[in-house]
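Recall that a protein's primary structure is simply its ordered list of amino acids. Everything else, from secondary elements to tertiary packing, is in principle encoded there. The following example makes that idea concrete.
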Amino acid sequence: MASRDRMMARPDRRAQIELVLFDVDGVLTDGTLLIGPEGEALKPFNVRDGVAVGLLRQHGIKSGVLSAKSSQPLITRATQLGMDVIKIGFSHKLEAIRQIAEEEGIAADRIAFAGDDIIDIPVMRDVATAYAPADAHPLVIEAADHVTKANGGCGVAREIAEDLLSARGLDLSQMYAHLLGDDDALRRVVQ
């Protein structure tokens, strides 16, 4: 999952992440835009990524979207999921990430970001941990600290959530104890 050059250059800060931001097209979706007869755009989101947002929240990690594009389907989905940050219509994402850090009171070394295209690289260099989906642009993969096994739109956020929680020392049953009704595992997580 790690990009070799980046891992040598920066320390692993996954266990300290307080906020995960996701690009949308190519990360939370496969990049497909469906245009209806009235010109409205439809975006196919993966339900696994919705579980990821709840999983992060359950373990005290905020989530959000940072996208150059603005669309009603994106606003609707991010709102449905209860994401903490919704920054859309920002083509200068580095500026936006600094604004988010200030607004949320979270230092850049406590923020993870997942991107898939060239405009995401400056943000990936600025945050603590950078992720890229398996089918991201080659330069983005090179800039990433971690590359997911999943392609964009195929559960990237879920894989990232599990990776971050694994870095905190949790196994899968501990991560999902709140959903499994496993009181013993849940107590171990809370302690």
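The chain is about 40% helix and 15% strand. The domain at 4-190 is CATH 3.40.50.1000 (Rossmann fold).
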